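Incident log, entry 3
Record: Transcriptional regulator, TetR family (190 residues)
Problem: checksum mismatch between cached and fresh output.
Input:
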Amino acid sequence: MAWDTEATRSRLLDAGVRQFAALGFAGARIDAIARDAGINKERVYRYFGDKQGLFSAVLEHELDALFDGLEVEVTTPEGIGEFTGRMFDRCLARPELPRLLIWESLELEAPVAADSRQPVCAVNATRICDAVRGLGRVESEHLLLTAISVVVGWWGLSRLAEVVLTDPDAVAVRRQMVVAQMTALAREAG
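Fresh output:
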């Protein structure tokens, strides 16, 4: 019987997402990832070279998914708020995404898959620039980074949310605030 290379690779990536999102690069173990995938750990080395190779592959696959099909659609400040709300929804559906973004920044010297991620960010920065009169390229890039930070921060600062917010689990309220605040920031930036 032939070995299903793609299925094995996919199972390892899925297990890597779970383990790396929960524990980061330093905390995740190849043995645990292999067990989680139900595959011999030798396959990790065969398909990804080493733990760093698997971590990079997981980040590239998952972080590409963060913006896949997610673009600023309406060229108004409200469109920027709506974009941020859709990003929030994506992270809510896949909470591993913000955790992986945080681990990438904490544990790597450089971003993973920058060549494939930068063009998507550039498109959104351009749309933000078009949406807000008087906003230059540099300012629109910073507004995009702010939108990402506002979304990711809820997952990355969950213990702080427990201290600051009366109801840190009020997802609908948090989403509403993210959209309203990013819309207001976009209006103010213009």
